[in-house]
Design brief:
158 residues, 10 strands, 8% helix
Length: 158
Amino acid sequence: MFSKSESGENTGDPMAVVIGVSGHNRTKPPGVPMRVRPLIVVFALTGLLACSLTVGVRGQLEDGSETFKGSVTGHSNHSGEIHMDSSKPGVTLDGEFVFATRREGSGVIKTSDGRVGKFTFVSTGRNGNGFGDLGGKRFVFTFGGDVERPKAAPEKSE
């Protein structure tokens, strides 16, 4: 439905007509100019797409030979990243994951010393757990809940 100007011409603005309670059409008072509306939509969508949640994560090789602690970030596009520091000095673990359903997902991980693996997980939104393989050994992890995120290292002052 398009509004019509006083001369009866179509204004081309579908947002300019407001249906009144009595069913009569009234012209909406001047508001946001048409050229600005697309910018508002772009900024709103950018804000929504930028939403993410970061929580703490801890894991270990099932045999207890190595532990990990770090953070996992999930994004509104159903993907995310994981980063953990190992109990082995200088070793880190990084990975990426995607949700296959609202609650379940899978991903890949790699350590800085060259071990690779795959994992699956179940999430309740802010917490969950998972398991997989890392360099031929079973890897288990828990995220969110009472798992604290590591504190950022203090910046060095010069």
